Amino acid sequence: MNPFILFGQEHLSAIGLINLTSIFITVYVKKHVPEEKESYIRLVLEILIWGQEIALNVYRVIYREWNLSSNLSFHLCGFAILMLFVMQYKKSYALFEILYF
Q1: What is the pLDDT of residues 11-55, one digit of tens each?
Q2: Is the pLDDT score of 83 beyond 90?
Q3: Residue span of the structural domain in which 73 resides
């Protein structure tokens, strides 16, 4: 198995695919999905993000790479993921500014 190469061809391809998918979802939802259903789509995306975070931690536990000091979800990215639901349901612009800026 080849080692991971930062900004190698595979890495840049994955980044590009993720960016294109994000842009496509944003444009598609704005043009084709009624406003009443936008909250449902946001909820699905939030669940997918939470699922990814949970899957990552399960993977680390299975392969014995999880430890309390480096994997506790209170670093900034993990905290932002946990706060997505709070921001969504409280509709707090202040929380939005804290999480994304």
Answers
A1: 999 999 999 998 998 898 888 888 888 888 888 888 888 888 889
A2: no
A3: 36-100
The H helix count followed by the E strand count for the chain is: 5, 0
- Give the list of residues 6+ apart from residue 94 with CB closer than 8 angstroms, or none: none
Residues 44, 87 within the same domain = yes
Instruction: Specify the number of domains making up the chain.
Output: 2
Does residue 75 sit in helix, strand or coil?
coil
Q: What gap in Å lies between CA 84 and CA 50, rounded to an integer?
A: 9
Structure tokens at 100: 């994304």
Query: Is the domain of 61 the same as that of 90?
Result: yes
Token pair of 33, please? 């999905």
Q: Is the pTM of this model over 0.85?
A: no
Residue pointed to by tokens 């929380």: 95
Same domain, residue pair 40 and 27: no
**Confidence label for 57 from pLDDT (cuts 50, 70 and 90):** confident
